[in-house]
Amino acid sequence: MASHSASISPNKRFLIFFDFDETIVDETSDDMVVEAAPGQHLPGWLKDTYRPGRYNEYMQRVLAYLAEQGVTESDLRSIMEKIPASPGMLTLFQFLRTRPAHDFEVVLVSDANTFFIEAWLRRAGVRQLFHRIFTNPATFNKNGRLVLRPFHSHECQRCPDNMCKQVVIRDYVARRTQERGRPYQRIFYVGDGANDFCPALSLGPRDVAFPRRDFPMHRLITETHEAMPGEFKAVTVPWVSGEDVITRLRKLVAE
Ligand SMILES: Cc1ncc(COP(=O)(O)O)c(C=O)c1O
Ligand SMILES: [Mg+2]
């Protein structure tokens, strides 16, 4: 599901994608909901139902269990709102929001879900920075259960069956380029996980991949450079803090 904010001026110079879990926030939001469970843990019979690559289905079962245990929307919202931002990320957002209006189009792509992400962004006061949010749809039904759905289906063998972020960003860039009548000067991708490596493969030599240092995305980029030189085309700038991203962006916007 994609949600979006106000209309956008057609000619932003740059497009920057952000992942959410372990990138914008310094945790995995799906893991944090366990805090709402009785005794702050999930029963073994539920945890045993997890199947690799089928996390979305597993989370649907977790959220159903939490609802049966009486966990409410406000319980979940307060857990999400308390997750800390990753180091320097709020400073990076402040940098982006104070740039000239024609500089950055900001898009979020995450395998979390709409409720967790919107709750966090609004509490942090940064929701309006994001022109679009692509993530798994999640809405409360009449019984107060957060019903989670897959984002889409796809053919990519690397990614979980509910979301391939490369499909998302390729479709978005193609559509926006047609709407604008021109390409972006550069595309940036800020991420951490293996599910951020796949979309980064679609970036070109003028684009920049910002993998969180020593996280899976960074490791996979390094391994690809070693095993298949030339396969990964984007410039790679690892980050420990959002301020590392600012340092590189400042140089690129000044060109
Ligand atoms: C449990 C779980 N939820 C969500 C995600 C990914 O969320 P995001 O795409 O926002 O990093 C992951 C990534 O590994 C995960 O393990
Ligand atoms: Mg992540």
Automatic annotation (TrEMBL):
Its cofactor is Mg(2+). It comes from the Eukaryota. The keyword Magnesium applies. Keywords: Hydrolase, Magnesium, Metal-binding. Pfam families: Put_Phosphatase. The keyword Magnesium applies. Belongs to the HAD-like hydrolase superfamily. PHOSPHO family. This is Phosphatase phospho1. It comes from Ataeniobius toweri.
